[in-house]
Structure formats: C-alpha cells, structure tokens
Amino acid sequence: MMLNSGSTWAIVALASVLALAQASTIRDVIAWRAGNGPQPLDISKLTAEIVVNDGYLLEEHQVTTADGYILTMFRIPGSPANPPRNGKHVAFVQHGLLCSSADWVILGPGKALAYMLVDAGYDVWLGNARGNTNSRRHIFHDPDARNTDFWDFSWHEIGYFDLPAMIDYALGHTGQTSLQYAGHSQGTTSFFIMTSLRPEYNQRIRSMHALAPVAFMSNLRSPFVRAFAPFVDSLDWIMRMLGVNEFLPSSDMMTLGGQLLCRDQALFQEVCANVLFLIGGFNSPQLNRTMLPTILSHTPAGASVNQLIHYAQGYNSGRFRQYDYGLALNLIRYGSISPPNYPLNRVTAPVALHYGDNDWLAAVVDVRELHAAISNSIGLFRVSDPNWNHLDFTWAIDADSLVYRRVISFMDRYN
Question: Residue 179 — φ and ψ, nearest 5°?
Fold first, then answer.
C-alpha cells in the first residue's frame, strides 16, 4: 500500500518535530541530572498521588494472572463526602493502548470519570494492563532483560487473562457478583476478547460502556497505523531479531520533556498538542493545553510491540481476529493457516457503543460494523461535538458533560 500525500506529510512533519524536541529534551535532562532543572514525576505512582492529592480515598491491589503477570489495580472506595460502605455497586474502568489508570483521574474532581463515578455512589476500580508502568512484573520474567519472554503478548492476552483476573479480584474483594464496565479503545478491544472467548464473563457484567470502541479497523484514518501497516510482517521480524519487544516505554526523558517542552508559555506546546491530534484526530478547542505536561508524564505508559502489530494486522485484514503468527505457526497454534475470528456472537452482556465523528482510530463505519456483530447492544451513541476525536474520551474539556454523565446514567439504569 502506498501512503497518500497527507499521510506522508504527517509522518515527515512529526519526525522532524520529535527530532527537535528530543534534542531539546536531552539538554534538559542533562540539566536535571546536574540539579539545575525540575524533577520528573515518579510515573509508577502517578495515579495514587493524584487521587490522594484530590482528597479521595485510595487502595492499591495486586493480582496475579493465570500466566504469571502481576497487575496493579487502584480502588477508590469513596471520599470524605461519600464514605465507603458495604454493598456499593462496583464500577471497573480500563484504559487504552499506551495508557494507564491515570487517564481516569487527571481531569480532576467533578470532571474525571473515576471521581464522577465515586460521587455517584460507586466503588471504583481502575485496571492496569500488563506491560504498562503500573504492571511491569511477572513471577518469572524480567521486563528489562534482553530477549525476555515478558513482552511476548498482544491485547489478546490482556483480554483473555488480565481482565478476567482483575474482574474476579474486584468482585471477590467486594462480595459482589457483577459489575459495571467502562473501557476506552484497547479497553474495549480486550473486553470483546474476554466475553467472546470466555463467555461466562458476560454474566458478571451489568452493562459495558465502550468509549471509542476498537474491533474492526479497516477504515481508520490515523497516519501512524496506516504508515507501518504495510510493513508489519517485516517489522515483527526485525524487532524480534533486535530483541526489541517494548514499545514507547515511559522514561525520565519523556516525562521531563513533557514538563519542559509542553508547559504553558513553552515554544513547543502547540507541537505537543499537534502530536496528539495526528494520532487520534484534530479537536483543538477540547484540549486543555495546561494539562499537557501531566498527560505526557503518564502517556505513553509502555506496551508490547505485538500490541501495535496486532492492530496493524487488523487494519490489513479488515477482520477482528487473533494474532497472525505466519502460516507455519498459525497451523501449530490454531490448526489453520489463518488466525480465527473472535466469535462476537458470544458477547451477550449489554453493550453501549459511544463514538465520535472525527475519531481517526475508531471510524464510524467500523463502529457500526461492530454494532451489527454483537447481539445485545444497548445502542450506538454519538458524541454531539462533530469534531470529537479518539483521545477526547479521556482528556477533553467537556468529556464530563458530553460523555461521562450519559455513561453513568446508563450504569444506574442497569444496576
């Protein structure tokens, strides 16, 4: 597939911008190391620090998956104005690709989905998928070792192992038998894997709210996925040969770069905004630029290279199916030369699909295809802002009024 001129321009422009930003960031890191600059945040503690500073109650929990990954969940059981009590309805919220639980609290009290759920009387649990900054542990494998098996996963394993482990833990800890689920992007992809391949989990979901749902991807517009998708097979081989398995891990340089280059009055602030727009779609009025240092201090939060490759495979094939290992390994793993499709007809939990017209990663036509494939849809719910993009579901100024209030209203209805 040849890139069109728009995609080529976007990639070249972004590469130039990042090169300049990296040069500036390296100088700033040197100054920081010498004690002449601001200290970067401890990313692994960012969610906890934000919640505590905002005056809400917080618990940290670890759960080990069936294949040995140790995941961190944050529980917000209440606040001084809404104290914890037994029998609260449970709401579980799952982040998207390269993100973390911090997404659901950085907008602050009265605006962030996690806090709005707590204020509405829910016992809130925030998940963290394997490989992000909060879940970089395994009972055997070291994520920082060369040629480690730690990173041998895609979002298939997140749906098959991580979500069931976290949901079972939250239900067991609270004594509930079912919960409300909200997920963004990959947090929706992994949900559809769980409920299609492990259909018993449908009974543990009262309602599911898919924010920017991603399953079918053949109509996405993001230049990043479109750029590397034609070379995905070569990319997989090259990464394995080089022993590079982690994609965009968080680091002091990324964190400090966000704080120094993207803060108010910084020359690069608009560059930072446009990097985000090139990924998920342009909607300048909805991005609070003052928040950019906070956003970039926890995003990207790290992921496996295979997660990106799996999405690129979906774009190439036009199908929602398991990871493609190539003809030989597919025969060994699946008994066929092609990976099997996920059986979406087995998803029976009530599902609400919330989408935006200007989402470059979850195109409207792809969301409609997903809607047609599931059997118990609550409905398709368009965000009224015609420029609403993929990342607006987590960081937009009006996410509370345009999305979150509707989500909580439906959750209340399905309790």
Answer: -150, 170
Verify cis geometry, omega within 30 degrees of 0, for the bond prior to 164.
no
Among the listed residues 202, 62, 53, the one whose alpha carbon sits nearest the alpha carbon of residue 125: 62
**How far apart (Å, rounded) are the C-alpha atoms in residues 306 and 233?**
11
Are residues 59 and 309 in contact, defined by beta-carbon separation less than 8 angstroms?
no
Q: What is the pLDDT of residues 117-162, one digit of tens each?
A: 999 999 999 999 999 999 999 999 999 988 889 999 999 999 999 9
Active site residues: 185, 390
Assigned token pair, 16: 């130039």
Is there a contact between 167 and 204 (Cβ–Cβ < 8 Å)? yes
Residue 26, pLDDT above cutoff 70: no
0.70 exceeded by pTM: yes
Distances (CA, A) of 325 to 151, 198, 335: 15, 22, 12
Q: CA of 176: how far to CAs of 118, 123, 170, 348, 413, in Å?
A: 17, 11, 8, 20, 17
User: How far apart are alpha carbons 217 and 359 in whole angstroms?
Assistant: 12
CB burial of residue 70 (10 Å; 0-12, 13-18, 19+): middle
Residue 198 in tokens? 């492990």
